[in-house]
Amino acid sequence: MKKILVADDDVAIAELLRQSLESEGYETQKITQALRFYDAVMEYQPDLILLDLMMPYLEGEDELRLLQMNPATRAIPVIVVTAMHEAKQQEEHYRTLGVVEIVTKPFDYDKLVALIKRTIGDQ
Predict the structure, then answer these.
(1) H-type helices in the chain, by residue range?
(2) Residue 122 above 90 pLDDT?
(3) I need a surface site. Which of 19, 41, 61, 119 has the fewest CB within 10 A?
(4) Rounded to an integer, what distance in angstroms lies between the CA atom of residue 48 and that of residue 7?
(5) Cα–Cα distance for residue pair 39/73, rounded to 1 Å
(6) What residues does each domain of the chain span?
(7) Sorting pLDDT into bands at 50, 70 and 90, what band is 123?
């Protein structure tokens, strides 16, 4: 079963994504505190990360840089799910940090699931 880590400081969105992706057959874990992000990645070893860029204490870009510094986490694909619409304008920059795609909130759930399946396959 493929594992997805959902990192979003909005508890409702994180829980909704966790439950919805589990109903799609993925194993999921959520974190809502940026300071726990890197430890959660190391402990959980996800196949994919859904990451909000705007979280308190650590910006999403900082979290992406942490992933890129470690060979064990560098190859984990990241889909950014953010309300920061200007992130789309910096997509090439984020791609250098391991981002597969940037999805802006509010998002179409079916399109997000299709993107996940294209990125890591079915559960």
Answers:
(1) 11-23, 37-44, 60-69, 91-95, 109-120
(2) no
(3) 19
(4) 11
(5) 11
(6) 3-120
(7) low
Report H helices in 1-95: 11-23, 37-44, 60-69, 91-95
pLDDT digits (tens, 9 = 90+) for 66-99: 999 999 999 999 999 999 888 888 999 999 999 9
Q: Taking Cα atoms as reference points, which of 98, 103, 58, 99 lies closest to residue 85?
A: 103
Residues with Cβ within 8 Å of residue 74, at least 6 apart in sequence: 67, 68, 98
Closest residue by Cα to residue 2 from 20, 25, 32: 25
Architecture of domain 3-120: 3-Layer(aba) Sandwich (3.40)
Residues whose CB falls within 8 Å of the CB of residue 54, separated by 6 or more in sequence, listed in order: 9, 60, 82, 83, 84
Q: Which helix (H) or strand (E) holds 5?
A: strand 3-7
Q: What is the pLDDT of residue 64?
A: 94
